[in-house]
Write a structure and sequence with these properties.
321 residues; alpha/beta; Rossmann fold; DNA polymerase, domain 1; seven-stranded mixed sheet; 13% strand; globular; binds S-adenosylmethionine
């Protein structure tokens, strides 16, 4: 990890490139940007420092992220609106802030460094802690409830779809067997069960075998994919002409949803066979990235947590009449 003072060693991922991609949309007289995953406020701070007229609306469902960023961004308090909410409520947040039209939006998906590093949040298989994994600590559903109450079939689906765990039925089977003896309440016990369920021959490769199961549970507990499915279209719809969105995802499911949402809007939807394209069916966006961009080798050497990052961006080129 990096060594920037006062940020808990947190390094914003692909920062230069994010600034470069969003920049052309943020240099007007009174631009508005939404950071839908405020976290420690790293990207937001750089945006506010770079664009002196910028108003930033920062959203995070983790109350500790809002608390931290409120302190960090206090020099810019007259230009920031920080909201404890899920990005799936983006429309409401913009309406309440009185800024239904925006010029930029940033999604830096997934978990933050403190969520992973603070053992008691229960996200990490490397510490022993209660099985929690809630980003929003006021929400009811925890990983403990998922692990102890979901059917073997539901657990299999989650582990396979959200964790890409090829031994999902074996892991789900052992979870249900073990929880019948005694409820599974700690990250350590769950990690041990996963290790036991995975065949020894495959355990030797591919890092900690609990990684995929923990990712899957985290996505389920926080309904991460449905939040993205609601938030990204809402942000795209709110963009003014020339407005830009950048999305950093960290696993293939997020990246696939992002790609689908962006490419759907960059296509001409005229019915086939027309001599001239219909203006109302012209694309409303153009892609700014060719495929997904990856962090540089140099960034990876500095910040190993950037390893799985994929960056996509698009620009609004047409607004509906
Ligand atoms: C990778 S961190 C963001 C880091 C941030 N860009 C920075 O530079 O400090 C992701 C953040 O998104 C938040 N988050 C995840 N899903 C969310 C959602 N649906 N709505 C709001 N915040 C969410 C997490 O709580 C976490 O703080």
């Amino acid at each position: 990890m990096g060594d920037n003072v006062g940020t808990g060693g947190h390094v914003p991922v692909m920062l230069e490139r994010v600034l470069e991609l969003l920049g052309p949309a943020l240099s007007g007289p009174a631009p508005v940007v939404v950071d839908a995953n405020l976290g420690l406020g790293g990207h937001s701070e750089a945006l506010l420092a770079t664009y002196p007229a910028l108003h930033l609306i920062g959203i995070d469902r983790d109350p500790f992220a809002i608390e931290h960023s409120t302190r960090r961004l206090s020099p810019y308090s007259d230009r920031t609106t920080l909201v404890h909410a899920s990005s799936s409520e983006l429309d409401e947040v913009l309406a309440e802030a009185g800024r239904p039209v925006i010029n930029g939006a940033l999604f830096d998906l997934g978990v933050s460094s403190p969520q992973l590093d603070e053992a008691e949040r229960g996200f990490a298989y490397s510490y022993d802690a209660p099985l929690d994994m809630r980003m929003d600590t006021s929400q009811e559903l925890t990983a403990e409830q998922v692990v102890n109450t979901y059917s073997a079939g539901e657990l299999t689906r989650i582990l396979r779809d959200y964790g890409e765990e090829r031994f999902a039925p074996r892991v789900a089977g052992l979870i249900t067997k073990e929880r019948a003896k005694e409820a599974i309440t700690s990250t350590r016990r769950l990690a041990d069960i996963v290790r036991e369920a995975i065949p020894a021959a495959t355990r030797r490769t591919g890092g900690n075998p609990a990684k995929r199961t923990f990712q899957a549970l985290r996505i389920e507990v926080n309904a991460e994919l449905s939040a993205l499915e609601a938030a990204l279209p809402a942000a795209l719809d709110a963009l003014a002409l020339g407005g830009r969105v950048a999305v950093l995802s960290y696993h293939s499911l997020e990246d696939r949803l992002t790609k689908q949402a962006l490419t759907a809007r960059t296509k001409d939807t005229s019915p086939p066979g027309l001599p001239v394209p219909l203006p109302a069916h012209q694309p409303r966006f153009r892609l700014l990235t060719r495929g997904a961009e990856l962090p540089s080798e140099e960034e990876l050497a500095r910040n190993p947590r950037a390893a799985s990052a994929r960056l996509r961006a698009a620009e609004r080129i047409r607004v509906d009449d």
